[in-house]
Specification:
Strand content: 35-45%
Largest sheet: 5 strands, antiparallel
Strand order of the largest sheet: 1-2-3-4-5
Helix content: 25-40%
Number of strands: 5
Number of helices: 2
Length: 71
């Protein structure tokens, strides 16, 4: 779970979202911390997937993001 791995996964995710015309603003705030849209997320790489801190544990970032997006 290195910052480089998380950075690469974030870049990959945002590229994939742009490919399907979902252009979400994002920027790195610090190691493992990103602002995606209007929210701040503490991210972690778990088995090659991005998870964000939620409550007392971690939740898949895609699940969190899809709760804010309308398809």
């Amino acid at each position: 779970n290195t910052t480089e791995a998380v950075d690469a996964l974030v870049e990959d995710l945002m590229t994939r979202l742009q490919m399907v015309d979902l252009d979400i603003s994002y920027r790195k705030l610090a190691d493992f911390q990103y602002k995606i849209g209007e929210k701040k997320y503490h991210l972690r790489n778990i088995n090659g997937r991005l998870f964000t801190r939620k409550g007392g544990g971690y939740q898949d970032l895609l699940v969190v993001l899809t709760s804010f997006l309308r398809f």
